Amino acid sequence: MSYELTRGGDIDAVAGVRSLRGAQRVGWQSAFVRRLAVTDAIAVFGAVGTAQLLRFDGPEDPPLAWPLPYEIGYSVVSLVLAAGWLALLHGYGSRTPQVIGAGSEEFRRLVSASLKLFGVLAILALLFRIEFARGYLAIALPAGLLGLIAGRLAWRWQLRGLRADGHCQASVLVVGSPEAARAMASAFTDKPDSGYRVVGVCVPPGAGADVETVGGASVLGDDRSVLEAVRRSGADSVAVAATDHLGPAELRRMAWDLDPLGVDLIVAPGVVDIAGIRLNHRLVAGMPMLHIDRPRYGRAKSRRKAAFDFCFAAAVVLSSAPLLLAIAVAVKLSSPGPVFYLSERIGRDGTPFRMIKFRSMQTGADLAVHELIAEHGGNPVFFKVKDDPRVTPVGRFLRRYSLDELPQFFNVLRGEMSVVGPRPQVQREVDAYDGEMRRRLLVKPGLTGLWQVSGRSDLSPEDSVRLDLSYVENWSMVLDLALIARTIGVVTRGEGAY
């Protein structure tokens, strides 16, 4: 089935339909880019200026050591270095609207540009026998990188807050089959910080004949009337989900026809929960291909991860010893029973182990669990209930801030758990696994993970499983560090815990 844009006249007339939302998007994006440019300049000039002051013990301007007969002071070197640094940041597209505000590509380009600059300096120094002061460069590079990253993070946090309130978002029209469009629309809706707000959906002819909404968005037509849907919805982006109705030629014509309107075209490859580190774009026979690396199960079981887990757990236990003692006293005095609660959990490869927690419930609470499961729907997987009557007052506080889980660091030291990993589960939950869910058992369970920073107990069982499988397949040490940092914020705010 061929694609064609519904025309109400000449394409030039339709081009005048550029929406107010589109103009607003260009406005806030331009303002955001200007702010990034200002903070980048402050970070770069501040770094090279600080390097000069610290290396030469004050505002002195010693000459650069090079073979030419005329003299150049380090003030000029700092100005040239800063200008070149900012030029490379611009040349690498670190402030383009497509990468700013979300994802890791912005930081990758920023780091690449910075390292390229100092690599060029090293080559120039070797070729032309220029002797840069090593201390000067050793201060300028890390200071500049830290300043650049801090500035980008500060603006990103502000942008995330604005997007959560419905501002600074691109309005997007989703095109695709009902199932694919529903998944894409739900993904955009569930993550407002991605910067997209769904304003309509177009589905193949006949697929939406008896459907008025898909994924919470109104069906505005079929995939042959995209231009009319753009005009009606005021969308400034069109996102094409997986569909058999639009081939390469139709997508190319769609891009041509949307270009005069200033409307962006986004094409989803039809894969989910694949980390960017596993994706590689390349052209094969003139066609854009997305190469997906194999899942990273083996790396998630590496010695490097085990060594990190042991060192991190040891540091936490030693530094939090007074807190552990205070919690133990509070648990003992608040209700009769032992201080610790030992629960059998299923570890890697289905091996059971005794997980240690501070007791947060009344003694014998396990005897009532089957009655509670039946009372709240009978789903044994990821069973949690708000206002659980078995939880003690002290236990409720400990659970809110995950303090009851601190003794699990001893499980990490014993090699039974990891700092970051899938959610540890009991035997009844594992017994309910299907073939897909059992892949969670390929790695050690963790104290925290994607489930912990994405909603904790508020997550549905399906979302919890999806996040755990995504972690298992996409593991990296950078991901572990990022999840630990995010966990600190989530736990401090007490979000989604009960």
Automatic annotation (TrEMBL):
Keywords: Membrane, Transferase, Transmembrane, Transmembrane helix. Its main location: membrane. It is found in: Membrane. GO terms for molecular function: transferase activity. Its EC number is 2.7.8.-. The chain crosses the membrane at residues 72-89, 110-130, 136-155, 306-331. It is a multi-pass membrane protein. Belongs to the bacterial sugar transferase family. Pfam families: Bac_transf, CoA_binding_3. This is Sugar transferase. The keyword Disulfide bond does not apply. It comes from the Bacteria. InterPro entries: Bact_transf, EPS_sugar_tfrase. It comes from Nocardia rhizosphaerae. It is an enzyme of class 2 (transferase). Residues 305-492 form the Bacterial sugar transferase domain.
